[in-house]
Amino acid sequence: MVIGLIIAIIISGIVFLLCSRLKAVCTVTLNQEEQILYIAVYFYRIRLFYRSVDLMEEPAEEQSFQETLSLLHQLGHGARQKWNHLRTIILFVLKHIRVDNVSWTTEAGTGKADTTGTITGGIWAIKGMVMGPIMTNGTFVHKPSVTVTPFFQQQTFSSVFHCMISIRAGQAMYVFWRVIRKFPVKREAMT
User: Fold this and answer.
1) Which residue, 11, 70, 113, 188, has fewest beta-carbon neighbours within 10 Å?
2) Pfam families, alphabetically (predicted)?
């Protein structure tokens, strides 16, 4: 009788943990002063993981036009296959997560009205290409907030992307297992 009660409590605890939600918060800030990525993962408001990554790169040394073209050719080799592989993973993951909040605010200006208008249109096009598949395949709790604010009289650029997603712990393990099983990591031979 006691052993059955202990087993029932253990099974109930496992089911409770598997049905609990994990929340991930991601914020990307890009402007003239800083370029930072913040990621945090919470379980019942307890922070399990936090990372802040500075996206600023060291200034690259000057390259010739020919070196730049060869670098682009190397990066582009197999890019379509890599993109299709990444797209399949993203769409599979989007089916299993819930997007609680998305906010993407961009402020841009070149100091001239005509070029600011062109830049603003390009930013809207990029945001549409990024948010379109996410809106189509994701499950949203709240409507996303996507804005572009043009500054016609000053030169500025600032963009802040904030996203909060949640997934049940059991689903997270299942998605991780399926992604690893379906898309194995290719290991290169060490020589």
Assistant:
1) 188
2) DUF2953
